[in-house]
Amino acid sequence: MANHMGVIACLLVAAALLHGAMAADTYVVLDNLGWSVPTTGNEGPYRTWVTGKDFETGDTLVFNFNNGRHDVAEVTKAGYDSCNGTSPLLSQTTGPANITLRTSGEHYYICTIPGHCLAGQKLAINVKTSTDTPPTPASPRGSSPPSSAPSITARGFFSVLLSTAIAFLY
């Protein structure tokens, strides 16, 4: 029984370490300032906020804003450059808006309230493919990925490992 307890303890420690290492990150856009029109009149605060961050697939962006005062739309590079949100890839009008980064590459976000993007309320980020979670294939525009698609998660892996450890007890 003592040998089994040692194996179980090792498995639990390994599972806890893997669970922590595989967890996706959550980024609150512009931290305490939230998703807002910069007081400087350009997107400088958003460029500064992005500096030093490594966005990966599976991470989540949180856009904190007051309903009716702001929104967030993911747009193409052309939409970002021209502050045109008429054909967004994604649009959220209720804050806080949580957006999970499902694909790698460049992602562009703007506020579509008139004048806000032109005043600098826009964010451009580069998303890398996570080594911890498999990337989700891009969906055709206007469609959503299937909700029943299987994926390997840290929580699922932890559950399997814990079940294996418990099996050693018996």
Q: What structural category arises from helix and sheet content?
A: alpha/beta
* Largest beta sheet: strand ordering: 2-8-7-4-5
Biggest sheet overview: 5 strands, mixed
Q: N-to-C terminal Cα separation, in Å?
A: 10 Å
> Rounded to an integer, what's the Rg over CA atoms?
20 Å
Name given to the CATH architecture of the largest domain = Sandwich
- The helix count comes to 4
Instruction: Give the strand tally.
Output: 8
Task: Give the class-level CATH name of the largest domain.
Answer: Mainly Beta
Estimate the strand proportion. 15-25%
The number of domains: 2
Question: Helix coverage percent of residues?
Answer: 25-40%
According to CATH, the homologous superfamily of the largest domain is Cupredoxins -  blue copper proteins
Task: Give the uncertain stretches in residue-range form.
Answer: 10-21, 138-169
Biased composition (Low complexity): 129-150
Domain Phytocyanin: 25-129
Signal peptide: 1-23
InterPro entries: BlueCu_1_BS (IPR028871), Cupredoxin (IPR008972), Phytocyanin-like (IPR039391), Phytocyanin_dom (IPR003245)
